[in-house]
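Friendly challenge for the regulars: who can give me the structure tokens for this chain first? No prize, just bragging rights.
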Amino acid sequence: MGKLAASWKFLLLGFLLFGLSTKLNAQEEHPEKSREAHSILESDRDITHGGLHNLKELFGLGTITGHLRNYFMNTINEGSLNDYYANATGGAMRFRSHEFYGFEFGVAGIFTYKTFSSDLNEVDPVTGEFSKWEHELFDVLDFNNFNDLDRLEELYVRYNLTHGFITYGKMEIEETPLMSQQDGRMKPFAFKGVWLHYTPDENHLLYATWIDRIS
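First reply, four minutes later:
Bragging rights claimed.
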């Protein structure tokens, strides 16, 4: 498991460093401006270049985004019952390539650390239970793991259609009546499978998906 975690960290770092270096080089070349649709993040995002010519531009004209997050949680119980608190700090980094003949790919990593907390595993003498809600900031499968909680959040390939797109891999899903991202703590749910988004006209939207992994 340690080797697997280290492997995706090096993979993500390599994508980010290569993307940054090629992005800087691409800016120095001052390519011809264009207003062609760019599907990296949102459908209304635009690009300002004359088109892709090589693999270098596939990375250099990609998009790097990220965020930092801090979450403090405190449970105050009535009377003599144990109280619990915890503070988690983490972040995420994403790279999305530029579109090339309709194809694009993305990779993202996320991490969480415990900055401080009470003893979340201290059993209450009355209820016989320990902290429930604060543990959800960290590892719900290993209640003793509070540091370096990282995972490969996204690794996918997408093909853009005239009126939509189809994505395969580990991805961030869209909000739908049946499924949602559920991003209420430090990490959202991660989904693996196939996702189709299709809008035949302005009055209709079709989702079709096959999900075989959720974490």
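The chain has a mean pLDDT of 80. Helices lie at 2-28, 55-60. Your move, everyone else.
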